[in-house]
Amino acid sequence: MTSWLSSRTKGNGAAADGAPTGERAAATFAARLTFEKLERRYGETMALAGVDLDIAPGEVVCLLGPSGCGKTTLLRVAAGIEKPSAGRVLINEREMAGPSRFVPPEQRGVGLMFQDFALFPHLTILGNVAFGLKALPKAAARREALAALQRVGLAKLADAYPHILSGGQQQRVALARAIVPRPAVMLMDEPFSGLDVQLREAMQEETLGLLRETRATCVIVTHHPEEAMRIGNRIAVMRAGRLVQAGTAEELYHRPADLFVARLFSEINEIAYPVRGGRVDTPLGALAVPGLADGASAVVCLRERGITLTRDGPGLAGRVLDIKFLGDVARLEVGVEGFDRPLKVRVRELDGWGRGAEVRVEVDADRALVFPAEMHESEAPITG
Ligand code: ATP
Q1: Which element (helix H / strand E) includes 174?
Q2: Full-model pTM
């Protein structure tokens, strides 16, 4: 089964044929990719429940969300492998899928790369890369494929077969195969998940460099918030078929739209309080919860890294109950006056603290995040 797909289109932004470009990847004209009220139903399941997202030409957007939230479905609908049940997909404002049209995958100028790379074992590495260039004369296809392989540093393995490649090399070949037809839009489904941790970071850098050269508009699916922050110009967070929030890493970190997004981007203490008169009373003082009625429950989120411990500074009295060494940081559990449960605190330096140490605990209440309590029982926060 082919796990990638791309096309060489004449219109719609793909570059004209030309000589290979040596060590640089051939550039294309980036395209705008737009999803409008996109829905995809599978029986009772709403895999996409009305997604609106506009991706600027050349932008790299990471799709982030838990398993089953619809990330792969969105890529498949964008590529044209699946038809939407409702809504529209547009590339450069042209309808690719919608009520009035359905443009087949090979005419969209879209490249798709799946997580298992799926190189054809019976084709040479060059043959794999040239596979998407069938519309070109053989010699030209070979030349372009070789240039792409050269760009990813694997030209000398052109005549070898994929079974000799390491995971990182397979990823590079898959990437060369995806970019060689110069897609205006590149869709990548967890392209780094098959790589070990050390290799992953290097491949992320390399891939990003290559994508910038090609100037393709890019959507990359990932499960990892850190990966999304590192490689995306913007991050689009999905849950249960919906887009929860889209923004830069800074926006999502500092101004998460809800508790679900807050949890993705930092380690937090969650403490639930009843709302009275538009506020909750906490040991840190009263915090405003506009828009929540009396008796509703609000969750106060304190970042584990946003809590400062001192020996004799200002703040609430606390006692270290437990310490876990995590390499660059240590995570402490600290019993704090006024809180029913211990707070988790991350510190860089242990400062000689041991279990039982008396500390002062400072929390910047201005940086606390407050949200309505979630409906999901399994995710219910502790109560304060
Ligand atoms: P993962 O991160 O695990 O790959 P995902 O976010 O990519 O998950 P999708 O694969 O898009 O999620 O699936 C979204 C929902 O649609 C899931 O509930 C899934 O079971 C359902 N689904 C996807 N494809 C089909 C299909 N062909 N037939 C029936 N249901 C499907």
Answers
A1: helix 167-179
A2: 0.84
pLDDT tens digits, 85-108: 999 999 999 999 998 899 999 889
Give me the residues paired with residue 269 across strands: 302
Range of the domain at 182: 33-254
Spatial distance between the Cα atoms of 103 and 84, rounded to a whole number of angstroms = 12
196 and 75 within one domain? yes
Residue nearest to atom 5 of ligand 1 (CA): 68
Q: Is 367 helix (H, G, I), strand (E, B) or coil?
A: helix
Give tens-digit pLDDT for 63-79.
999 999 999 999 999 99
Q: For a substitution probing ligand 1, which of 48, 69, 224, 242 has the most ligand atoms within 8 Å of its CB?
A: 69
Length of the chain: 384
Ligand 1 mutation pick, 71, 114, 193, max ligand atoms within 8 A of CB: 71
CA atoms within 13 A of residue 7's CA, in its CB half-sphere: 15
Tally of structural domains, the chain:
2
CA 128 from centroid of its chain's CA atoms: 28
Do residues 113 and 189 touch, judged by C-beta distance below 8 A?
yes
Q: DSSP characters for 266-299?
A: S-EEEEEEE-BTTEEEETTEEEE-TT--TT-EEE
Separation of alpha carbons 332 and 344, rounded Å:
6
| Residue 252, CA distances (Å) to 32, 165, 222, 258, 320 in order | 23, 38, 16, 10, 31
Q: What's the CATH code of the domain at 244?
A: 3.40.50.300
CA–centroid distance, residue 47 to ligand 1 (Å): 6
